[in-house]
Amino acid sequence: MIIGAGLAGLTAAYVLRRHGISAVILEREPEIGASWLRRHPQLTLNTHRDLSALPGARYPEGTGAFPKRDAVVRHLQAFAQEHAFDIRHGVTVSSVTRDDGGSFRIVSEDGVLHAAHVIMAVGRDTERRLPAWAGLEDYEGDIRHAADFGHASDYAGRSVLVVGGGNSGFDILNHISRIKTGPVWFSVRRGPSVLPKRLFRFAVHRLSPVMQALPTPLVDRMIAATQYLAFGHLSRLGFPEGAHDAATRLVRDKIAIPVDDGAMAAIRSEQIRVVRGVRAFERNAVLLEDDSRLTPDSVIVATGYGTSALADDEGRGTPGLWHMGLTPSLTSFFRQTEREATDIARAIAATPGRSPVNSGASEH
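== NAD(P)/FAD-dependent oxidoreductase ==
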């Protein structure tokens, strides 16, 4: 049984089938790609098209080097249709436990299913995270998570505070930089490690397979050198000093590396101003760590996501219960999930007296 029909779940089903293992996919959404379609319409992959496709598939001719949201959705939908996976939509799983017979009992609103193996492919960007800032509950201004960014044109003429110097924060600023807004502030606590989308017209991400094979400390230095070549000393643009540990944080903390596509030029031209981290909220203002106060029309909190309760289940390490699609890599989530799916499929195929991933048994 595979829980989740996003890129991880579809990849798992494909790789399992290649190893002679059948699977049912349970998906809470009514259609493939629904979670992508809830993200803002400007969303564009930071990973190159050639490294961001499902296994054995390609994007149609004419797709940009960095596919946009709708192109990714069509890619997922076409893949699912071509391979005719057994996907059961509208099924929300509430728990996965071991039953007395040693198989797994998957409980949903539609009944109970049993399976010898369960693959959790529910994604890592399912739950919005908001810091517990003092005074936040009394703040009367417009505040939203980056997941609810909407359309960049909605911020025309408005002052905006973007909080968080990670991947989501830069993504938002890349789009806002193309709009004529009011003042825009970028609140960061530490100097970011950020890569240009292109350097001298070359798509930097195309080098990621080479970097993936190198020692992490060396990749840290390579990223720092590329950042300096593209942007110079970030401290001259108002950023705090950084640690130049992008690859280390990616491996150790699963923190994706931000990619610039216009934000840094806007910071250099002072269209966007870098400010200190947020300390607290007042009724009509945001208090920063240097005691300055801002009164933006909109606050966009880009402080990351969490996984669902299912992905955080204490059952990690239980034989037959697998988690995938939670780890970013230098190449792409597409490449990483294929590697994870291959490892899982090989382990299941080597299990003595192996049963299918889906047993087909159900109860109501």
